[in-house]
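Homework-ish question, so no full write-ups if that breaks the rules, but can someone show me the predicted structure for this set?
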Amino acid sequence: MNAISDALIITKRQLLQLARVPELILFSIIQPIMFVLLFRFVFGGSIDTGQPGGYVQLLMPGIFVQTVAFTLASTAVGLTADMQKGLIDRFRSLPISRSAVVFGRTLGDGALNIVVLTAMGITGYVVGWRPTSGLFNVLLGFIFLLVFGFAMSWVGVLIGLSVRDERVATNATFIAVFPITFLSNAFAPTTGMPKPLQYIAEWNPVSTMVAGCRELFGLKNEFGATAGSFPSENPLMMSVIYMILIMAIFIPLSVRKYNNANKK
Amino acid sequence: MKAVIAENLMKTYNKGSVQALDGLSLDVEEGTVLGVLGPNGAGKTTTVRILATLLSPDSGRANVAGIDVLKHPDEVRKIIGLSGQYAAVDETLTGWDNLIMFGRLYHLSAKAASARAVELLEQFRLTESAKRPIRTYSGGMRRRLDLAASLIVRPKVLFLDEPTTGLDPRGRQDMWGVIDELVKGGVTLLLTTQYLEEADHLADEIAVIDHGKVIARGTSDSLKKQVGGERLEIVVENENMAAVKEIVAKVSGSAINVDEGLRQVSAPVTTGSKALIEAAKLLDEKGIHPLDIGLKRPSLDDVFLALTGHVAEEKKEEEDSMTKGRKRGK
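A: Not a homework solution, just the prediction itself:
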């Protein structure tokens, strides 16, 4: 049981950081809110979605998924900073479970997403987002998003423990996540992309996540090249498979990396 | 009873291209302080990291408080404290938050962790700053808090890796005071340093390391004897050279060293400031006003020169690879 309580102490440390420096919360929610407003008002008027309620209905699931995907970046940057400051060394010299620090970190970053998603949801509501599927499905969608953020966070652990410098972590994760979130159905329908790109975009886990959330929020999905295939017919199921895969690969790798950090 | 034993430790970095440790052996008697003295890149940090379970050697044996470090690292972690060159604490949090967090990670109850934090803050004169974020602390305060965090469970063996590197003279004095008190409390301490003065002040015994192995071992007195201890140095105008040679020879009683170019006369002395006063008195009696007069304490360079015939050299690349992922002070 120590493994869990140790991890929770590390999680608590992160939440305490937010309490000590409330600006941290402010800055984690400002950017997503800004994105909601910019996309809603800059592109919203010129994209005809063919669905009731306008672009904002399609936008919100996309921007939710993009935001939680970026959990990868905050996890990576946070861990690299801890390594640089020697904190990881100190943790590793303590008699605690070998996975506590990385589990605690991913839980903490996952927990911050609750605040971020709530702020985004409220902003979305103010600018016209009205999911039609009922409270239960909407909540299910949010749980889905939180788990996806948690899974992506594990990719961040591996990156964060592998690079030497915080700036490298910032840039590397941005370069990794940004194209993945845009090469998807998150902001514009994939049907307008060149055919080969459609395959990539529609099999992209970000797209299946977005499609899954749209389904849960009561919207129809539109697929191009892959229409009729398994991910387009079952985006929720496909997303669950992706999340399990990501965690099955990256949790063991990350825990191993943590135990060998600086140990080469 | 030996509290720390390292036997024939070997470690290479970068696929063998950098030899960090080359058969290093040392031991620390229980309740004593061993100062590991050497320049950057000599293998000090690597040694500490191996003994503190953070790094595996390529070969060799390490034992802390009777426990095999390589076989039972978890057992070792329960009884050691480690404080490194960089204050490894969470700077966003307050001093109090940090001590509670580490206390809980040592599996103290919430109550015990609080009680211990109060004690440690008091002991390290940080009570007033307890509720301030660490990033507002001075370098010395940070280092003291870091040390406090490594003492939460009253470790049997404490490792301090260059505890005063980067501190200003006041911070250094402060840190020495704190370490002195710990030593009086009976902790077994292995500390690394680049400063002979620091090892001299804090350690019972000194191990000088160079290129990954121990090249000399002994008390600070015996080392200084090998190096020649303090030297009296006087610089005068040319016309007074002859008189000063006589004075220095008389005060020192040993062979003098004359540098005509610098117009400097020097010789080893054993009586410290007494010799300085005596020399000043004799100069004054003869009406000679020296351009410069002073005692020169042997530095790490002098020790190295005496022991190895070469000056202490830094091995930059090794330091870099050794601390992969950590920010260095320079």
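Now go work out the reasoning yourself. Hint: Chain B touches chain A at residues 13, 49, 52-56, 74, 77-78, 80, 82, 84-94, 97, 101-102, 104-107, 133, 149-150, 323-327 (CB under 8 Å).
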